[in-house]
């Protein structure tokens, strides 16, 4: 996100790691070999299913995803209650007045829409890179289609590229080439104790040690 040129797709990608953690939650405490196998086969199955689904959607000539079109339809419905006022002779800076409260608590107000710089005072247009209801009604007021502001990342053809390459099955171990590298052995001192409940907490860092020292000082004082 720091090097994407200002186009922060954080709302689409920030939770990617958490999604993977959720799908692999049942395998996180397994031995390393079993964990790798489980991760590979589960992700391979997931990519195969998603790839098949997006292939059918791509063949239906649908341009944008279902979730995206559902959100756009809601914004179009919301834009029908807005009032447009133009103060710019070039018809690029437009004032949009809300006449109906759609936000459950926030009072109705007005927002400046700059079609040239693709900004809206509400901020949603810049954050989500999706035309908000104010941009939609502003475009309609000058007889222009709001789809010119929709970026290609929301198109079905680009979503399909994520699942375009399929996983390959793992050959049986008897057909593997002979390994000629280093041999590693486990460390017995790191073996988990059999007695008591297993502890699956996060890996502790230097920050935890500092907090522990502070708590000990507070307790002794």
Describe the structure.
- The chain is built from eight helices and four strands, in the order H-H-H-H-E-E-E-E-H-H-H-H.
- The chain has a four-stranded antiparallel beta sheet.
- It has helices spanning 10-13, 16-23, 32-59, 66-79, 124-128, 133-141, 156-162, 206-220, and strands spanning 82-86, 93-98, 110-114, 119-120.
- The protein is α+β, with helices and mostly antiparallel strands and 221 residues long.
- It has a domain at 66-149.
- Helices cover 41% and strands 8% of the residues.
- The chain starts with 9 loop residues before the first helix and ends with a helix.
Q: What level of helicity do the residues show?
A: 40-55%
Strand content: 5-15%
Q: Which sheet architecture does the biggest sheet show? A: 4 strands, antiparallel
Q: What is the element string, with H for helices and E for strands?
A: HHHHEEEEHHHH
Quote the distance from N terminus to C terminus: 45 Å
The overall pLDDT average reads 78
Radius of gyration: 27 Å
